[in-house]
Amino acid sequence: MLGEKVIDGRQIASKIRSRLKAEVAELKEKGICPGLAVVIVGDDPASRVYVNMKKKACAEIGIYSEEYTLPQETTQQELLDLVKRLNGKEDIHGILVQLPLPGHLDEEEVIDAIAVRKDVDAFHPVNVGKIMIGNYDFLPCTPAGVMELIKETGIEITGKECVVVGRSNIVGKPQSMLLLQQHGTVTVCHSRTKNLKEVCKRADILVVAVGRAQMITGDMIKPGAVVIDVGMNRLENKKLVGDVDFDSAAAVAGAITPVPGGVGPMTIAMLMKNTVKAAQLQA
Ligand code: GUN
Predict the structure, then answer these.
(1) In angstroms, what is the span from residue 99 Cα to ligand 1's centroid?
(2) Percent of the chain with pLDDT over 90
(3) In testing the pocket of ligand 1, which one of 36, 38, 99, 101 has its CB within 8 Å of the most ligand atoms?
(4) Helices and strands (H, E) in the chain, number of each type
(5) Tens of pLDDT along 110-129?
(6) Does residue 226 form part of some domain?
(7) Owning domain of residue 180
């Protein structure tokens, strides 16, 4: 019973990677080998894990990847110089600078320096603007992965009450735009929202990306709703949990993503998709 409503992000991501692998094989026959450069500054353990997963996915699909690991004390100029060098490197079609950067570095300036056509995270202001207009080459990986998971449930988005909890540039804001483009009626909640429980309870589709462990509980969810949990929080006992309290939410939801094994694998699959697309566009 419970198994039926749990959305298996690992399996869905694996299907997408298989499709991409076939696509990359075709591109290689035409002499195109998609290439991704991943830049990591410092030694944040979570970032290290994410970067390793990205490299592994590249290897599986046949995407060429380069990793640039820079020391914590890297200067802004050194990082900008690397980005500019990668902008001009012909075997690299996508550039990803793993965030967050150490505090002394200016993330905005670094993102602005990435060539728009190589911005596979879709964080550059030009790509963000294109998403707003609905005329884009790349979608940001996590919101794009969430849309794929919603699609898998078979729910029609048109006309539905969609509630996004969180307004970050990486997830909440672009997520609300994508749901709007699919004709959802979208509400964006944040730390100053009044009556969060009542607003969440209206949602047919609830996407949560706030970074607070298990804050959305079953009593905040409409029976039968689709619940997508973008959170990744480490409890004191080392357990990895989402922003949704899974057990109480699963008892009421119609479909729900687990953490881990929900959104996470999809984010990486969408990064691979963007890298393949970048290579096609640059060919
Ligand atoms: N840090 C957390 N999520 C992301 C992401 O999607 N891309 C990058 N570059 N850094 C991140």
Answers:
(1) 5
(2) 98
(3) 99
(4) 11, 10
(5) 999 999 999 999 999 999 99
(6) yes
(7) 141-264
